């Protein structure tokens, strides 16, 4: 028998902060008796629409490559549900891609987004705090992929934006706002 030990994977930094610091603060702030009522992030969905892929099918490959590098997970390609002649779109044609992140990969992505990517945006003054959907989920968009360190600025063939949806366990926008504020989302001050 060999004496090799296997170490457990390290807990993501943002997840450890959530469990040790943020949960007690939210429990105190909203007076929840049941610990399962405390809001938490369930998943993060990152999607990239490539409308120009209707004319050039190679653009979707670049979007898949960029999204794979940013999230560390292979995206699912979305296809058109019906044909639209004005947009030169046929049913079943690839028009975008998305990734659903859960668990440790989600926490790592949020940590990189909040500490590395958002501060790299030129003239950044915060993200809008009014983009909640009424069910405790927050949605916002980014205009280009170059703010992520995983993307080499010289290899960008086409500038692509992305939409990010942060899905929380609460159905209350006020609690979701408090959760994201504690996590470090840089909301604009009113």
UniProtKB/TrEMBL annotation:
GO terms for biological process: translation. SUPFAM superfamilies: RL5-like. Keywords: Ribonucleoprotein, Ribosomal protein, RNA-binding, rRNA-binding, tRNA-binding. Residues 34-90 form the Large ribosomal subunit protein uL5 N-terminal domain. HAMAP family: Ribosomal_uL5_B. Part of the 50S ribosomal subunit; part of the 5S rRNA/L5/L18/L25 subcomplex. Contacts the 5S rRNA and the P site tRNA. Forms a bridge to the 30S subunit in the 70S ribosome. The keyword Ribonucleoprotein applies. Residues 95-187 form the Large ribosomal subunit protein uL5 C-terminal domain. The keyword Transmembrane does not apply. GO terms for cellular component: ribonucleoprotein complex; ribosome. InterPro entries: Ribosomal_uL5, Ribosomal_uL5_bac-type, Ribosomal_uL5_C, Ribosomal_uL5_dom_sf, Ribosomal_uL5_N. One of its GO terms (molecular function) is structural constituent of ribosome. Belongs to the universal ribosomal protein uL5 family. Pfam families: Ribosomal_L5 (PF00281), Ribosomal_L5_C (PF00673). This is Large ribosomal subunit protein uL5. This is one of the proteins that bind and probably mediate the attachment of the 5S RNA into the large ribosomal subunit, where it forms part of the central protuberance. In the 70S ribosome it contacts protein S13 of the 30S subunit (bridge B1b), connecting the 2 subunits; this bridge is implicated in subunit movement. Contacts the P site tRNA; the 5S rRNA and some of its associated proteins might help stabilize positioning of ribosome-bound tRNAs. This is 1 of the proteins that bind and probably mediate the attachment of the 5S RNA into the large ribosomal subunit, where it forms part of the central protuberance. In the 70S ribosome it contacts protein S13 of the 30S subunit (bridge B1b), connecting the 2 subunits; this bridge is implicated in subunit movement. Contacts the P site tRNA; the 5S rRNA and some of its associated proteins might help stabilize positioning of ribosome-bound tRNAs. It comes from Bifidobacterium dolichotidis.
């Amino acid at each position: 028998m060999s004496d090799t030990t296997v170490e457990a994977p390290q807990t993501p930094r943002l997840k450890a902060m959530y469990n040790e610091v943020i949960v007690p603060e939210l429990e105190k702030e909203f007076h929840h008796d049941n610990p399962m009522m405390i809001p938490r992030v369930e998943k993060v969905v990152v999607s990239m629409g490539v409308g120009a892929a209707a004319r050039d099918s190679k653009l979707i490959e670049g979007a898949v490559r960029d999204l794979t590098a940013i999230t560390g997970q292979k995206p699912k390609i979305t296809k058109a549900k019906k044909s639209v002649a004005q947009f030169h779109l046929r049913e079943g044609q690839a028009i975008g891609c998305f990734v659903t992140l859960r668990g440790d990969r989600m926490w790592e992505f949020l940590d990189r987004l909040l500490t590395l990517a958002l501060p790299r945006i030129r003239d950044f003054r915060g993200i809008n705090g009014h983009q909640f959907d009424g069910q405790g989920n927050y949605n916002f968009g980014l205009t280009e992929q170059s703010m992520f360190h995983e993307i080499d600025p010289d290899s960008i063939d086409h500038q692509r934006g992305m939409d990010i949806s942060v899905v929380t366990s609460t159905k209350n926008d006020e609690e979701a706002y408090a959760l994201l504020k504690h996590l470090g989302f840089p909301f604009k001050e009113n």
